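ok so i was messing around last nite and threw this chain in just to see what happens. nothing serious, just curious
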Amino acid sequence: MNDSAGLLLTAAQMREIIAHCRSERPNEACGLLAGRGGRVLRVYPARNAERSPQSFLIHPDDQLRAMSEMERDGLEFTAVYHSHPTSDAVPSHRDIQLATYPEALNLIVSLKREPVVCRAYRIVGGHQSEVPLAIEKEAPDVRSK
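result:
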């Protein structure tokens, strides 16, 4: 799956993102995702510098650390993720206005109800379009004899 087609995460990565989002309630959680061709290979939970239930700003120290590691390891900046503690998994007006990385997708985790809802978007020039979000099921534990 390439980034124009959507976003691909493992079930473990999705659990990590959701756990981070839940741990930051009532505020929005945020972080970065890195990978290749739309496949997420690394999750970078970050601090929300705004510490707000309605908005987020990835802490500059966390962003610098994540971007440096991505560059060092030859990974692409794949997506920004953040939570909506009390609203749906759709970009808010503010999310659209402040989207500054057109090459990266946006993963939104809604904690409004259980089970949580996650959706991915491309936001470019003030316009949003939903993209496919795929979660790989974990392979069963296989043991050789």
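not much to say yet. The mean pLDDT is 92.
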